[in-house]
Amino acid sequence: MAAPESLIGESSSACGAELSFERLLHEAVHGIAASRGVRDTSRAGRYHNRRFLAIAEELGLDHADEPHPSSGFSLVTLSPEARRRYRPTIERLGRALKAHTVATAADSSRSFRGPAARHGSSGGGVRVKAVCDCGRNVRVVPSVLAQAPIMCGGCGKPFRIPEVAAVG
């Protein structure tokens, strides 16, 4: 099993502290599974199985009742109880993300644009989570979403990038 990893930086700042922390908990589930010798995914890591789900529940993550056909139980969200339990940590993460944004705003040479940009592809840019009211989400480069709305096939409403909450 490969060791789980997560990048915290520019895209995390764009998503906000709570969504970034939710992502870190998702990766923590994979870390716990690896340390326990539990195979929590299949299909080259894309399908998150019920063993992933059981550990996610231990950390306070909610999930859909039924698995997604291709990604299983990948989409986990903070439960209200976990949101309360982790609030001080989420607030500290928010302050750190804000400090990172301030520290790197003037130096565009340090800006992370992802592997596509490093290899000269036109698809470069940091993708952030955009959500719709029905709870579905997509990863998108903010400038692409600014060009025209991306509509949800589930509810017909546009995806939006959640506001970054001012923390601290």
What would you say this structure looks like, in words?
This protein has 168 residues and is of the alpha+beta class. The chain has helices spanning 10-15, 17-36, 50-58, 80-85, 87-105, 114-118, 142-147; strands at residues 41-42, 47-48, 61-63, 76-78, 128-131, 137-140. The protein has a two-stranded antiparallel sheet. A hairpin with a 5-residue loop joins strand 5 (128-131) and strand 6. Helix 2 packs across helix 3 and helix 2 packs across helix 5. The protein is globular, with a radius of gyration of 17 Å.
Q: Terminal Cα separation, in Å? A: 38 Å
Instruction: Name the poorly predicted regions.
Output: 110-124
Helix content bin: 40-55%
Silhouette:
globular
Proportion of residues in β-strands: 5-15%
Number of strands: 6
Largest sheet: spatial strand order: 1-2
Blueprint (SSEs and pairs):
Elements: H1 10-15, H2 17-36, E1 41-42, E2 47-48, H3 50-58, E3 61-63, E4 76-78, H4 80-85, H5 87-105, H6 114-118, E5 128-131, E6 137-140, H7 142-147
Antiparallel strand pairs: 1-2, 3-4, 5-6
Observed structural traits:
168 residues, alpha+beta, two-stranded antiparallel ribbon, 6 strands, 42% helix
Question: Short summary of the structure?
Answer:
The protein is an alpha+beta fold and 168 residues long.
